Amino acid sequence: MNRTKGDEEEYWNSSKFKAFTFDDEDDELSQLKESKRAVNSLRDFVDDEDDDDLERVSWSGEPVGSKTRPGSFQSLSDALSDIPAKSYAPELGRPKGEYRDYSNDWSPSDTVWRLRKGKVCSLERFRSLQDKLRLLEEAVSVHDGNVITAVLIFLKRTLSKEILFRELEVRQVALRHLIHFLKEIGDQKLLLDLFRFLDRTEELALSHYREHLNIQDPEKRKEFLKTCIGLPFSAEDSAHIQDHYTLLERQIIIEANDRHLESAGQTEIFRKHPRKASILNMPLVTTLFYSCFYHYTEAEGTFSSPVNLKKTFKIPDKQYVLTALAARAKLRAWHDVDALFTTKNWLGYTKKRAPIGFHRVVEILHKNSAPVQILQEYVNLVEDVDTKLNLATKFKCHDVVIDTCRDLKDRQQLLAYRSKVDKGSAEEEKIDAILNSSQIRWKN
Amino acid sequence: MFVMWFTSLHFRKFTPRLCFLVRPRIKNMRYVAGLVNADKLAGRTRKYKVIFSPQKFHACEMVLEEEGVYGDVSCDEWAFSLLPLDVDLLSMELPEFFRDYFLEGDQRWINTAVQALHLLSTLYGPFPNCYGIGRCTKMSYELWRKLEEEEDGETKGRRPEIGHLFLLDRDVDFVTALCSQVVYEGLVDDTFRIKCGSVDFGPEVTSSDRSLKVLLNAEDKVFNEIRNEHFSNVFGFLSQKARNLQAQYDRRRGMDIKQMKNFVSQELKGLKQEHRLLSVHIGACESIMKKKTKQDFQELIKTEHALLEGFNIRESTSYIEEHIDRQVSPIESLRLMCLLSLTENGLIPKDYRSLKTQYLQSYGPEHLLTFSNLRRAGLLTEQAPGDTLTAVESKVSKLVTDKAAGKITDAFSSLAKRSNFRAISKKLNLIPRVDGEYDLKVPRDMAYVFSGAYVPLSCRLIEQVLERRSWQGLDEVVRLLNCSELAFTDMTKEDKASSESLRLILVVFLGGCTFSEISALRFLGREKGYRFIFLTTAVTNSARLMEAMSEVKA
Question: Residue A232's closest chain B neighbor by CA?
Answer without folding.
Answer: B407
